[in-house]
Amino acid sequence: MKARVKRLSSALQPEPSLRAALEKLELGRVPDVAALLDAIYSLAVQDQPVVLLAGGTDFLLSQPPETLSDWATRPPFVIDIAGMPELCGLRMVDGFLQLGTGVTFEQIAAAELVGSHAPLLSAAARGFDSQIAPRATLGGNVAKRAAHADGLAVLGALDAELVLTGRDGPRSLSVEQFLNSDERVETALDELIDRIDLPLPIDFDGGTRVNYWRKVVDARGWISKVALAASATKVGGELVRCGLAMASVGPRTALMTRTRELFLSTPLARIRTQAIEKAVDADIAPLTDAVSTSVYRAHVARALVVQFHQQALVA
Ligand SMILES: Cc1cc2nc3c(=O)[nH]c(=O)nc-3n(C[C@H](O)[C@H](O)[C@H](O)COP(=O)(O)OP(=O)(O)OC[C@H]3O[C@@H](n4cnc5c(N)ncnc54)[C@H](O)[C@@H]3O)c2cc1C
């Protein structure tokens, strides 16, 4: 499928420059990211509401009532980027697994390349509902920076780099920088997240990889109450690499800095459960909402990290 633009407002008469930008996105043509950004900017400059849709599984369900009533009087341009070839690549380049952000979780779950180089991401992708997975994209999962985003938690544990492209060209951000960066990316009007780069773990002599993914879900079985992604390398009785990130234990993905420090600074057999719980408590700020309570989330968060520790001990 190609990127398409749908003019929903019959009253709208695009300016010539806007029309020129939109023509590049005509149904059936394959635009590049530059053409897409041109159209987005032209629409924004002329103060036209614009919506960028990938799978639409998040966007269509998460609009506040005021936005929907605004659209009733002033319908937006909808630019559909699902299946855009430039965003759908999956390849190994110079020690990085590169994932286009248009890749769906169904494709991620099925990809051997992901299974062999980033099994944690495969495991998280397999946890998506089977009706949602064929549409839900990695980019859509990341862009909103939602606390419950499974993909973003895994990318945090794997120390991924996000490649964003805007008018000034591409730039790379770590997950931490992305989580702390300007909110405007969320609207996708200023920059497109076009690629995720996953560094492959360095092989240590006699090293053992420890991967852990666990999601404790709500009654419907998909929104996490708490999820933990952990990826580590053990040499002897110590971790020499440790990525940890949790979903749904704060307003955004928690990158678990104190807990990582604990695991990297102390031999596994000497780490006490109380020390783990203390570090986890310092890393999370769980909320009470319709899905769970802060007390339950904190309890589960501690238990999952203790379980990861036990798995690492016997690995
Ligand atoms: C029934 C159901 C089950 C779900 N299960 C899960 C689950 O198990 N785990 C989970 O984490 N989430 C889940 N979700 C949430 C959602 O499906 C995912 O977050 C999904 O990955 C969103 O991707 P999308 O392509 O549908 O995003 P869209 O809805 O198309 O887009 C979401 C937002 O991201 C922006 N965007 C999309 N792509 C880009 C890009 N490349 N660059 C910049 N901005 C972009 C859009 O403009 C929009 O603002 C579920 C949702 C539903 C309805």
In short, what is this structure?
This protein has a five-stranded antiparallel sheet with strand order 4-5-8-6-7. Strands 1-3-2 form a three-stranded mixed sheet, covered by helices on one side. A three-stranded antiparallel sheet has the order 9-10-11, with helices on both faces. The chain folds into three domains: 4-80, no CATH class; 85-199, Uridine Diphospho-n-acetylenolpyruvylglucosamine Reductase, domain 3; 208-314, Enolase-like, domain 1 (2-Layer Sandwich), CATH 3.30.390.50. It is built from twelve helices and eleven strands.
Features:
3 domains; five-stranded antiparallel β-sheet; 315 residues; alpha+beta; binds flavin-adenine dinucleotide; 35% helix; 12 helices; Enolase-like, domain 1; single chain; Uridine Diphospho-n-acetylenolpyruvylglucosamine Reductase, domain 3
How helical, in percent, are the residues?
25-40%
Distance between the termini: 44 Å
How many β-strands, per DSSP?
11
**Unreliable segments of 5+ consecutive residues:** 7-12
Order of helices and strands: EHHEHEEEHHHHHEEHEEEEHHH
Q: Any ligands, ions or cofactors bound here, and which? A: flavin-adenine dinucleotide
CATH architecture field of the largest domain? 2-Layer Sandwich
CA-atom Rg in angstroms: 21 Å
Number of helices: 12
The best one-word shape is globular
How many domains, in number, for the residues?
Answer: 3
Overall mean pLDDT score? Answer: 87
Q: Based on helices, strands and strand pairing, what is the structural class?
A: alpha+beta
- Work out the strand percent: 15-25%
For the largest sheet, list the strands in their spatial order.
4-5-8-6-7
The CATH topology of the largest domain is Uridine Diphospho-n-acetylenolpyruvylglucosamine Reductase, domain 3
The biggest beta sheet reads: 5 strands, antiparallel
CATH class descriptor of the largest domain = Alpha Beta
